[in-house]
Amino acid sequence: MKELWKPTTTHNGRQARAWLLRTIREFFYQRQVLEVDTPILSHGTVTDVHLAAFSCRFDHSVTGAPQTLYLQTSPEYAMKRLLCAQSGPIYQIIKAFRHEGAGRWHNPEFTMLEWYRPGFDHHQLMDEMDALLQETLKTSSAQRFTYQEVFVQYLNLDPLIATDAQVARCVAEQGIDMVGELPDRDSQLQLLFSIAIEPNIGQQNPCFVYSFPASQAALARLNSQDPRVADRFEVYFKGAELANGFYELAEPGEQRQRFMQDNALRAQHGLPQLPLDEHFLAALESGLPECSGVALGIDRLLMLMLDAQHIEEVINFPVHRA
Amino acid sequence: MANFSTNEFKAGLKIMLDGEPCNILENEYVKPGKGQAFNRVKIRKLISGKVLEKTFRSGESFEGADVLDTELAYLYSDGEFYHFMNNETFEQIAADEKAVGDNKKWLVENDECTLTLWNGTPITVTPPNFVELEITETDPGLKGDTAGTGGKPATLTTGAVVRVPLFVQTGEVIKVDTRTGEYVSRVQK
């Protein structure tokens, strides 16, 4: 117990973090992307059924009534409000919080880099992400595959046309012994991706996977040519999921509908309903410029730079010592 | 018994699965940024002894298994049950053939064994790592044969058969490693 006051990092690791933050700031300064600052506490939160936010009580609200505030899981809504206010290209390095367990790649409090590029589609943003990764990880240029391509290559399963029964059979064929049932097709695809695809891609250089199924669009727009898929991408490197980006959904009606679908799904899972971020929805009403945005886990990027085996090696005081 | 969420899974936690108490050996948390989280868990089923890889949906809860290990001295077998005693409380517990299994050949009177109890009933009996047993029968070693040809079989008082060096004779007491079933040394009486 006596040792718990000590950081879990080395001096070398702390220097690497400082270098990384300086390099990122220089990268965006050169590209004239503005650093911004948005709140960690918000009245609204993410409705995604698989994300859980910390909440706390605020006793001094203007109405006098106790108010629930949420620690943000990503600065996405606030940054989009800035974009709606004509901020132009912006980035932020911020603490994000997720109410979930700690693990090799997870700490409930972590550092996120998020940036938005008006006028970029997701392919242009992938180009910029690739440049940043090459500069920080000293890798060669990343590979790019569609979600469909990696499923066909590693599992011989086409996720866009396979029947639910074929997806379920694929899970069984992978020798995945589930306790209980998976609630839906997307969960099965996510399990297959995590276990049978992620360990095989991006081993030498980072790998971008894009065109996720429309049912996993999150806040991405649907593809204009093929509405079965969304303009969403993820970055994988050496078994880690590093970043998630969207060609952003700008249509306020569809955004509200997706939030409400999330809440309906939460009800099915017996999870509480969550308040929609009305400031964010109002900002979309006023008009979000065409843009792409992406969030990258700084701690994971550091792990990969340092060849660390556990996130605790790059976070001074992980949650059990916090 | 309390329920345990997958968030509380860690090595050594005992939970009920398919009606059987299980010991968690390893737990890995898998969480896509957007999507369902999973726990990939290696477990040992405590009755069958089987080790399995299971995948759990994170956030689900499972009943804890009321399993505890206790050190008890072996007393005797009545042919159906094997009787053990707590040397401090003198409380006696009987284990059935199924719980003792193959380990019955290592049961030596007064040796402290580890009994794993589930809801108070023994489900496994683990003998000490080393036991001392007398040889009841083995071929007399051929004189001059010291080449160490892998030894010869020797039957012990409990019926266990162990390979011993050629110089070891009937009537001698030997030390055996119960985990491997291998001869360790002779014991001076």
TrEMBL record, chain A:
Record-level GO BP terms: lysyl-tRNA aminoacylation
GO cellular component annotations of the record: cytosol
InterPro entries found in the cross-reference section: Aa-tRNA-synt_II (IPR004364), aa-tRNA-synth_II (IPR006195), aa-tRNA-synth_II/BPL/LPL (IPR045864), EpmA (IPR004525), Lys-tRNA-synth_II_C (IPR018149)
Keyword check for Ligase: yes
Record keywords, A-Z: ATP-binding, Elongation factor, Ligase, Nucleotide-binding, Protein biosynthesis
Keyword Ligase: yes
Catalytic activity: D-beta-lysine + L-lysyl-[protein] + ATP = N(6)-((3R)-3,6-diaminohexanoyl)-L-lysyl-[protein] + AMP + diphosphate + H(+)
Any Pfam family: tRNA-synt_2
Span of domain Aminoacyl-transfer RNA synthetases class-II family profile: 20-318
GO molecular function: ATP binding; lysine-tRNA ligase activity; translation elongation factor activity; tRNA binding
Subunit structure and binding partners: Homodimer.
Protein name: Elongation factor P--(R)-beta-lysine ligase
Gene source species: Alteromonas aestuariivivens
TrEMBL record, chain B:
Top-level taxon of the source organism: Bacteria
Keywords, comma-separated and alphabetical: Cytoplasm, Elongation factor, Hydroxylation, Protein biosynthesis
GO molecular function annotation: translation elongation factor activity
Compartments it resides in: Cytoplasm
InterPro entries: Elong-fact-P_C, NA-bd_OB-fold, Rib_uL2_dom2, Transl_elong_fac_P/YeiP, Transl_elong_KOW-like, Transl_elong_P/YeiP_cen, Transl_elong_P/YeiP_CS, Transl_elongation_fac_P
BP terms from Gene Ontology: peptide biosynthetic process
PANTHER family per record: ELONGATION FACTOR P, ELONGATION FACTOR P (EF-P) FAMILY PROTEIN
Coiled-coil blocks: none
Protein name per Swiss-Prot or TrEMBL: Elongation factor P
Free-text function comment from the UniProt entry: Involved in peptide bond synthesis. Alleviates ribosome stalling that occurs when 3 or more consecutive Pro residues or the sequence PPG is present in a protein, possibly by augmenting the peptidyl transferase activity of the ribosome. Modification of Lys-34 is required for alleviation.
Family: Belongs to the elongation factor P family.
All residue ranges annotated as the Elongation factor P C-terminal domain in the record: 131-186
A GO CC term assigned to this protein in UniProt: cytosol
Species per Swiss-Prot/TrEMBL record: Alteromonas aestuariivivens
Gene3D superfamilies listed in its UniProt record: 2.30.30.30, Nucleic acid-binding proteins
Pathway linked to the protein: Protein biosynthesis; polypeptide chain elongation
Residues recorded with modification N6-(3,6-diaminohexanoyl)-5-hydroxylysine: K34
Pfam families listed in its UniProt record: EFP, EFP_N, Elong-fact-P_C
PTM comment: May be beta-lysylated on the epsilon-amino group of Lys-34 by the combined action of EpmA and EpmB, and then hydroxylated on the C5 position of the same residue by EpmC (if this protein is present). Lysylation is critical for the stimulatory effect of EF-P on peptide-bond formation. The lysylation moiety may extend toward the peptidyltransferase center and stabilize the terminal 3-CCA end of the tRNA. Hydroxylation of the C5 position on Lys-34 may allow additional potential stabilizing hydrogen-bond interactions with the P-tRNA.
Domain Translation elongation factor P/YeiP central residue range list: 69-123
